[in-house]
Design brief:
Neuraminidase; mainly beta; about 140 residues; 4-stranded antiparallel beta sheet; disordered C terminus
């Protein structure tokens, strides 16, 4: 990632990191090439790294921050479609074994009513309040 501050003529380069989200101007969230989630706290400069040993899915491809600040990651875990949510510093994952191998990086989105959608070629899943954990349903599934 390359960051340029035009006002201060400041250039930052974070090798092997892909910026995904910024939360309230306090933290930047990245995905690494190694499949890790990296959080940079802009207030104290601290960097945190999360991986599968922390409960994160083993192959994250997309990260979003919802309107309420909930961090959600989609991708796969053990070659099955999966999502993970960060709450109080702990990751909770949900695997969708009959869905597909992975959720596409283009398919994780929050709608204006707070519903979160994640999709694949043969199904779409949704949940209303990701802060409560996965409580959604499959919207459609190919026969």
């Amino acid at each position: 990632m390359l960051s340029i501050d035009i006002n201060n003529k400041h250039l930052e380069v974070f090798e092997d990191l892909n910026l995904q989200a910024e939360t309230d101007g306090h933290a930047r969230w990245f995905l690494s090439k190694k499949g890790e989630v990296v959080q940079h706290n802009l207030l104290n400069g601290q960097w945190l790294l999360y991986n599968a040993s922390d409960g994160l899915i083993d192959s994250p491809v997309r990260l979003i921050s919802t309107a309420t600040g909930q961090i959600i990651v989609s991708g796969s875990h053990n070659q099955e479609a999966a999502v993970a949510m960060l709450k109080n510093g702990k990751w909770t994952k949900k695997v969708f074994p009959r869905c597909c191998i992975y959720f596409d990086y283009r398919s994780l989105i929050e709608l204006s009513d707070g519903t979160v959608l994640v999709g694949a070629s043969n199904a779409a899943y949704h949940w209303k309040n990701p802060g409560l954990g996965y409580i959604g349903t499959c919207l459609l599934k190919a026969a």
